[in-house]
Design brief:
Length: 614
Amino acid sequence: MARLSKQGYFKSIKAAKAQHWISFLADATPRTIWKAKKFAVGRVTPRFPNLPDVTSPEEVNNALLAHFFPPKPLPIVPSILRPHKGCDPLLPSEISAALRKCSSSSAPGPDTIPYSVWKRVHPTAPRLLTDILSRLLKFGYHPVSMKKANGIVLDKPGKASYDSPASFRVIVLLQTLSKILERVVASRLSLIARSPKLVHHNQCGSLPALSSFDAALSLVDTVRTLLRPSLKVSTLFLDINRGFDNVNASILCSSLKKAGVPHYIVAWIGSFLPQRTCRLLFQGSPKTFFPVQVGTPQGSPISPMLFVIYVASLHIALSKGLSLLYIDDFALSAPSISYWTDGRTLQRAFGQIRARARAREVGISIPKTELIHWRTPPTRDPEGAPSLPPICLDGQIFPPLPCVRWLGYWFTLNLASSAHFSKRLSLAQGAFTTVKRLSPPGSGLSPHLSHRLAISLLLPTLLYGADIMVPSRGMLAKINVYWLQVQRWVSNCFRSTPIPILSAEACIPPIQAIIPHKRHMAALRLVCTAPTINPAAGRLCPSFPSLLKHRVSNSHRTLCTHLAPNVMPLSGKMNRPPSKVRSHLPINELANLARPILESLSPAPLANAALLPE
């Protein structure tokens, strides 16, 4: 009898939990669907750092601090504060713009004040934050009390053992009041960061109107251009090792002064970076603030901007090649008549970058280095031909890879899109397996919330990179099968439902319409961006109608002037010939997609005036 009572008790609890879960999904709102997804994924219990020769939480705390924040020489901080002339007054509208970029759900730092509080306080008392922060800018000072941070210690998933600090990571939570001021300074600094003395024109990260799309498009367009005259092209991918942690405040401020940055911004940055404290939070941690020496603080809105300014001198000029940088990821492309010559060119370029990096007190991560030798699809090696040459860097040999991943794009040596979309399809299928548990047939989320998940989660995961790469016919069929499954899940229709009715019922366009729309939007973004600030827009045809006639000097179009125009149009005035997409340069192809839309409009009507030179 007792056993039956016990079983009935646990069955009642299980049934109550299941009923509560069904009620929670049925009453879900657009704001709570992400919480439901978080519950569906599940939560893994965080591991306690089990370090060798450590017997107390205080020793664990010291070991983690020594690993993540190694001691460095203390910079000199001015002790006398003076108001700086030429400091533009801080306006309430600047703070409002900064608050609009802040998420109310972001976890606060040691001050425990979320952004939602400041978003209510500022409209009520607009002069409160304005008066507090304006004085800090005028004196170029960031208080020590606003430099405190919480460090959440989390384990890295998939590690074989967790007896080393390298198996963990730290998520730094800064104070929200400090981050509001940092966003204001970052916004002001971004307006003058376009100066050639501050940021290199081939830097595609952490700047307004630029993204990974521009870096990947510039790389693919350059490689295809150099392959047209039968050149051998190789690309070396490098990564700066812990670049943000190794930013030297003195060197950074010196570079800002030489570039003519206003003195109050330089002084504020010099006060913002040093004298920081952090307390690590894990099970049993002492929860005590300790001084740490970091380059640019993790999670700060201004840190990426300061870093790209700091590493601007690492860019080098490659003859007939291209040096691209997305924050801390390099892509060095070199063309020649043989891959051996490309290797020697890339070795010299690596030596120059490493020497400049040492002068900036940063290093290159050798294990993350990758090499690829690009080839055209018709290229075939004869029998008995030697294998493609590797490259030797710092005593290590790196063989060429058939496929590399850079900025989320999977590039094969012949620039085929199947490898990339195979990866994206696998990721999308994994995400769909998780979220479809939220809406089983006949219960769960309402259809409009399922539609929201499909558009905001599944579609971006599936079609990332479709603005540059075009899926093949076979891959498009696989993507279409997956998208039909998503449509049936959203609409709860039968498998025998006709496809046109299925798309209309789910209010989701077919994949054959979404991909062209995505490419058209990418084309508009490309041609409506000022070519002086975007390396991809700077590679447009000189005859293409745009607001500025500026074009980059390393587009290498002159190498293709003697090729047949029916293979690759060199002029924006020429009609696109009816040949395969892969025979055209990617930028030319996108520009031709935008031409019909721009014919009735003024040249580049969407260019942001604030990003154009005076």
